Amino acid sequence: MLYEYILNSDLDPNAVYNLHQKVMDHYTAGGDAIVESGGNKRPIWRSMPNENGCMLLVRSLAKPLSETPSISSRELLHTLNDEVRFNVRLSLSERKPVFDDNNVKIKTTEKIVHRDNVHRWLSDLLFKHGLELENCSLISECKIPMKKKKYYIIAADFVFNAKIVDLEKFEYAYKYGIGRQKAFGFGLLLGGK
User: Fold this and answer.
1) Which of 99, 116, 152, 184 is at 20 to 30 A from 28, Cα to Cα?
2) SS3 70
3) Is 29 left (phi over 0), alpha (psi -120 to 50) or beta?
């Protein structure tokens, strides 16, 4: 069972650290409840601007511990080869291994996806999550400063049509999000059939 609910905030929709804290405080009722990381019961969320700051759509596998005015639950009703249409906000970044002169991996770095490679990158990312990209549109792109403004995330909003080619991978992606920076409001798939 999946749970979805909306939180309203007077915070800037790009204040990702503060919004992450708001989501987690709500999810754990402001306590120190154990939340499994690595995509196991941690909620995913997305901020959308409104007249008072922003609205946060939150999706999780467990009900939040705080009171929530309106919460909906649903089961996934997709099947293999379904045609789907989603809106998603992604961090335009990918991890790249760095090798020494002996071709031994010494570290992993995070690189920004170059604009010329965005379509291929999105297609590859979706395929890893059980979707075959049919077409996509880049709706918007912006820089979101991170903590203490030492670096930023390139955020991109996409609308895409795809076909489900691996139902198990797709269901995992729908529940846990796709791509990098999910804790900061990226990767939640909005839409469906």
Assistant:
1) 152
2) coil
3) left
Residue pLDDT, tens place only, 121-169: 999 999 999 999 999 999 999 999 887 667 889 999 999 999 999 999 9
**Is 82 buried (19+), middle (13-18) or exposed (0-12) by CB count in 10 A?**
middle
- Compute and round to an integer the Cα radius of gyration of the chain: 17
The first and second tokens of residue 170, run together, are 């797709």
The one-letter amino acid at 29: A
Three-class secondary structure of residue 176 per DSSP: helix
- Cα gap 127→27, rounded to integer Å: 31
**Phi-psi label, residue 102: left if phi above 0, alpha if psi -120 to 50, beta otherwise:** alpha
Q: Contact, 185 vs 13, CB < 8 A?
A: no
Of 94, 95, 89, 92, which is closest to residue 160 (Cα–Cα)?
A: 89
Phi, psi values for residue 95, rounded to 5°: -90, 135
